[in-house]
Amino acid sequence: MIVAASDPRSPGDLSAVFTAADRTRAALLQRLTAQGHWAGCLSSSALSTAVAVVGLSQFGQDQALIEQGLWWLVRNQNPDGGWGDTPNSPSNPSTTLLCWAAFHHRAGAAEHHPGTLACAERLLTNYLGSLDPAQVADRIIRHYGTDRTFSVPILTLSALCGRLGPPERAWDHIPQLPFELAVLPHALFRWIQLPVVSYAVPALIAIGLARHENAPRKARLLRWLREALKPAVLRVLHSMQPSTGGYLEAVPLTGFVVMALGASGLSDHPVAEAGARFLRGSVRPDGSWPIDVNLNTWLTSLSVRALVMATEGAPPLSPEQRGRIARWFLDQQHRRPHPFTHAAPGGWAWTDLAGGVPDADDTAGALLALHHLEPDSAETRLAAARGVRWLLDLQNRDGGVPTFCRGWLNLPFDRSCPDVTGHALAAWSVWRDTLPPAEQQRLDQAVIRAVDYLEQNQDAEGAWRPLWFGSQHAPDHSNPLYGTARVLSALAVASVEAGAVQRCIERAQRWLVQAQHPEGGWGGALGVPPTIEETALALEALCATGLPDAAPIANGAHWLIRATESGTRFPSSPIGLYFSKLWYSEELYPLIFACSALGCAARTLGAGVSRSE
User: Fold this and answer.
1) HSE-up of 94 (CA within 13 Å, CB side)?
2) Residues whose CB falls within 8 Å of the CB of residue 413, separated by 6 or more in sequence, listed in order
3) For residues 148 and 174, what is the distance between their CA atoms, to the nearest angstrom?
4) pLDDT at 273
5) Going from the N-terminus, what domains does the chain have, and what CATH number goes with each?
6) 3-state helix/strand/coil string of 113-138
7) Coil vs helix vs strand at 602
8) φ/ψ bin of 240: left (φ > 0), alpha (ψ from -120 to 50), beta (otherwise)
9) How far apart, in whole angstroms, are the C-alpha atoms of residue 243 and residue 249?
10) What is the bridge-based pairing of β-strands 289-290 and 576-578?
11) CA 400 – CA 452 distance, rounded (Å)
């Protein structure tokens, strides 16, 4: 049941909303850098720190960084003895196992931290049943199922740290990844059912090679074939590595590659050396590592959109600022086939660094931002046409839009998803009329298929479930609030025949209203504690799609005002999911989402009311 505000249009209530909206917008504008983008800060990660420590242990000059990393883990151990993905996350078996193993890889570290390790061992025993190597391997593999993206790297690190028994037997517990398949043409990858997702091919290569080098020698013919293909496979691995050395600019993925190459006797290989430089360069002053260096492109597109939503028109930026931001986006568009996923030119990645990979969500975000910034520029229109075609080419047979690669449907993180599909719909819609007639027709057909996908994938209660965001407190860790709010907000922008989606919109609105807490906030799922991020997303979606009842909007706005201390404080929550479902929080998310939501609420609740009243 929703508790209504006393009067959502009363002067006192409206004044509080206007004040918080103004403060939040000013705070977001202050975060704009002189270079023309927004830069946030990802949460530190116990998992990344453990992997980086083990990766750097392959080299002799990093003892100080390793020691700092271990001490950071000691300081950030949860009271139950385990570690979560962020300092604000509950313990989980995968991260706890990696951290526990990392202490054993550093000579003498286990003896220096006996209390830390004893607590971790008790928790792991509860999680896994025992610390017997066969039991550990069985539970980790069963937890991740057929997706080997994370289970095999976890077990490989555990083996290298001596946590899966003697070296001559440890590798028996680790499945062999078919690294030799990496020499096949990339176009075949979606057909050969790789056991890892598209963005984990470097781990497939390096960790598969490590097991090949260390496991007992069986299957002589296959071993001969793999040995013969090693030089070609290593060339593929090298060709995929960006100039920064960090695959995807991700610490875990790069750390796993460095660690595995060291285990293969290749710590002096150029890939391992470049990866180690990346790890040294991405450590934080407190000794921790994040999961990724930055989300600058994603944060900048979200910020531009939030400022537009907050003001219902051109973002409150000077012409010089708009031009600088637009130029920054244009410079981030990928102009060559990508060596990692072989993506065609035309897309945008989440980061402005070399390790970013073009993806659908960031391409859609960049297209929308450019439309808000410089829609009539000839250069912008050319870039937008390339981006629109890139998204059209990515659409799957089911009508949905995946993140990275078309047709990779065997593992969850490569499939179509509703929130990304909705985002693409919105981007297509704003640029449609600038395209040639033939491309307009193609786009119109893509829109019909995408709408059908969204209709088919809305659940019976009216919610959509996202791919890259979750809720740590939900039983299944999914975040239908994020998915539903993002699809609704996208449909408010998309040029779609009203009758085709109106029922979907109304069902989604009802679900959001039912999910609201009596105090006014929203969590990631029904009954889940509310956060600033999720409350703001729901509030914006209800405003954008014209919810007739003002009470849920007023209650949500006032909860947000209280939670942000009237637009002055924005604590973040771990709602983001990185590869293999690693949790993260981003310090700019609550500020960006609150800016958009409070601006929309002020406009909705204050419709027809003067600011001076």
Assistant:
1) 24
2) 149, 197, 199, 403, 467, 579, 580
3) 10
4) 97
5) 1-30+458-613 (1.50.10.20), 45-290 (1.50.10.20), 309-432 (no CATH)
6) CHHHHHHHHHHHHHHHCCCCHHHHHH
7) helix
8) alpha
9) 10
10) unpaired
11) 9
Per-residue burial over 101-125, b = 16 or more CB atoms within 10 Å of its CB, e = otherwise: bbbbbbeebbeebeebbebbeebbe
Cα-Cα end-to-end distance for the chain: 31
Confidence (pTM): 0.93
Give the CA distances from residue 567 to residues 13, 18, 310, 594, 598, in Å, rounded to whole numbers and listed in that order: 15, 10, 13, 8, 9
Q: In whole angstroms, how far apart are CA 108 and each of 114, 288, 396?
A: 11, 20, 52
State both tokens at 588. Answer: 């700019």
Partners of residue 42 on adjacent β-strands: 586
8-state DSSP, 343: P
Query: Which residues lie across from 402 on neighbouring strands?
Result: none
Q: What residue type is 115 in one-letter code?
A: G
Give the rounded distance of the alpha carbon of 248 from its chain centre.
Answer: 12
Q: Which residue has the tokens 């609030």?
A: 481
Length in residues, the chain: 613
* Angle CA 343–345–347, to nearest 5: 80
Model confidence band, residue 3 (pLDDT cutoffs 50, 70, 90):
very low
H/E element, 281: helix 270-282
The mean pLDDT of 572-590, rounded to a whole number, is 90
CA quadruple 313, 318, 323, 324: dihedral, nearest 10: -120
Instruction: Pull the structure tokens for residue 317.
Output: 């930026």
Of 489, 570, 578, 576, the closest CA to residue 524 belongs to 576
Nearest Cα residue to 372 out of 304, 421, 434, 431: 304
Count the neighbouring beta carbons within 10 Å of the beta carbon of residue 404: 20
| Cα–Cα distances in angstroms (integers) from residue 573 to residues 111, 286, 510, 583, in the given order | 35, 20, 25, 10
Contact 337, 345 (CB under 8 A): yes
CA–CA gap between residue 406 and residue 404 (Å, rounded): 7
Location of structure tokens 């849920």 = 552
CA–CA dist 64, 586 (Å, integer): 28
Measured over the CA atoms of residue 46, residue 51, residue 52 and residue 56, the dihedral's sign is positive
Token digits of residue 174: 């680790």
Name the token pair of 157.
């690190």
HEC letters along 172-210: HHCCCCCHHHHHCCHHHHHHCCCCCCHHHHHHHHHHHHH
What is the model's pLDDT at position 279? 97
Both structure tokens of 590:
């609550």
pLDDT of residue 50: 97
* Helix, strand and coil percent figures for the chain, each rounded to 5: 60, 5, 35
pLDDT digits (tens, 9 = 90+) for 351-361: 999 999 999 99
Q: Considering only 6-10, 365-369, 474-478, which range has the smallest mean pLDDT? A: 6-10
Q: How many CB atoms lie within 10 A of CB 568?
A: 10
Nearest CA to 470 among 60, 176, 85? 85
Q: Of the spans 184-193, 403-412, 464-473, which averages the highest pLDDT?
A: 464-473
Distance CA 85, CA 91 (A): 8
Q: Report d(CA 120, CA 113) in Å as an integer.
A: 11
